[in-house]
Write a structure and sequence with these properties.
Length: about 450
């Protein structure tokens, strides 16, 4: 390098900086983050250094693009040219999108199936009717099977004839053996299956068989009123028999029984005809069946249990009378909240039947019928006097309040008789009644 061009370190040069002067002036923009300052360094005066000094940038107003007012992506408009969006180069221009942004969809809450409460009650009524009809069929099948088993065993042991005469009211048994046969069939065919069904269910014994305390005078009045109403039902059954007789049909044929001749025959007749049925049938129908149906109303439970109770007797002669008696017993059971009045009424009604049979066998027909008529009138008078006493002192027994259910009484009865097991029960018992009548003809 020439000496003329050498510069003293302590002297300043007057040579203009042509490189800097040749550069055009650049406009200052808000986007410039740094200023370029060219100066000599005090520590190194021989070299030109580029000193980068950070300068503060004035705040820039972030404008939303006018072409896309709904822009929420974070891109802002250019403050010097608001119609031109300022976006990173890696993204395509938002104004040239092929598809428009999706519109907001309305909110639909989650859908849950809510069945009609009335339909739910209808389904529950049908289930209760099916259960009670099934119970009746089970009792009929078990009772018939046990009766056949007893007859087979008795015939095998030589206690009865292998082919008994169908006109024999004792079907080949002695009077004592016949009543034992009936008592065992009732106990094993009704009580044992009902007890097993009750234990297998979630129902407690105290709820199914309530025994609410009743005053002695009130209990006697209720029992006598119930027996008198049963006598009225007996009159209705006689009228039905007379109407069948007009067409030459004896619905009581093959059902006549005798009380026997000895004292033990009379005792066994009373126990097996009056005591045992009053206990086991009340347990099954005013206890188990009634408690199942009662959840849908008292009157519905009364009618449903009475109908199935009538079907249990298995013949056209006893079904109408048993149905009316079932209405009386079920009503008394609900109003008194006790099984005891129903058991006593049932026993009194059956004991009257045993007494009437004894009178017809021991006395001439005209005297027997006269005494039986006097007994009926006496019981009816006492019964209506008892009803009058109850209307004055136990008015709650006659209070029939409307049932608080969604279905009406007629709708529930329609559902009850539409149940498959109830229909099957009617068909089976009709066939049994026809078979009894055909065999005894």
């Amino acid at each position: 390098m020439n000496d003329d061009l050498q510069l003293n370190n302590n002297e300043k040069t007057d040579i203009p900086d042509t490189a800097d002067s040749a550069l055009p002036d650049l406009p200052e923009t808000p986007n410039n983050n740094f200023n370029l300052n060219l100066k000599k360094s005090e520590s190194e005066p021989d070299s030109d250094l580029l000193d980068l000094k950070e300068t503060k940038q004035p705040p820039v107003q972030q404008n939303v693009s006018f072409n896309n007012p709904g822009n929420t992506s974070g891109f802002t408009g250019n403050p010097q040219n608001p119609f031109k969006s300022q976006r990173p180069p890696c993204y395509p221009p938002q104004n040239n999108m092929r598809y428009a942004p999706a519109a907001a969809q309305p909110y639909y809450p989650p859908y849950y199936y809510r069945p009609d409460p009335k339909e739910l009650e209808r389904m529950d009524v049908a289930q209760c009717a099916s259960s009670t009809g099934k119970i009746t069929i089970i009792l009929l099948v078990v009772m018939t099977a046990i009766a056949i088993l007893i007859e087979v065993v008795a015939a095998f042991c030589g206690l009865v004839e292998k082919v008994p005469d169908v006109s024999d009211p004792y079907v080949g048994f002695s009077p004592m053996g016949f009543y034992l046969y009936e008592g065992l069939a009732s106990l094993a065919g009704i009580f044992i299956p009902s007890f097993i069904i009750l234990k297998s269910s979630k129902r407690t014994l105290s709820d199914t068989l309530p025994f609410k305390p009743i005053k002695g005078k009130d209990l006697l009045a209720v029992v006598m009123a119930g027996i008198s109403l049963c006598m009225v039902a007996q009159i209705v059954a006689v009228l039905i028999q007379i109407n069948f007789n007009l067409f030459g049909i004896d619905i009581y044929k093959g059902l006549d029984t005798k009380s026997g001749t000895g004292i033990f025959d009379l005792i066994m007749s009373t126990i097996c005809t009056a005591v045992i049925p009053a206990l086991v049938e009340e347990f099954a129908y005013r206890g188990l069946v009634l408690s199942i149906l009662r959840k849908h109303g008292d009157m519905f439970a009364v009618v449903g249990s009475a109908f199935l109770f009538g079907m249990l007797h298995g013949n056209f002669a006893q079904i109408p009378f048993a149905f009316v008696v079932g209405l009386i017993l079920a009503y008394v059971r609900i109003k008194t909240e006790s099984m005891l009045p129903g058991i006593l009424i049932h026993f009194g009604n059956n004991f009257y039947a045993v007494t009437a049979t004894i009178l017809s066998e021991r006395l001439p027909e005209e005297y027997g019928n006269a005494i039986e008529g006097v007994l009926i009138i006496l019981l009816v008078v006492i019964g209506f006097a008892s009803i009058y006493y109850l209307t004055k002192n136990k008015k709650e027994l006659f209070d029939i309040s409307p049932e608080k259910t969604l279905l009406t009484f007629g709708e529930k009865i329609k559902v009850f008789f539409s149940a498959g097991t109830v229909i099957a029960c009617i068909v089976i018992l009709s066939l049994m009644s026809i078979a009894v009548y055909a065999v005894s003809k």
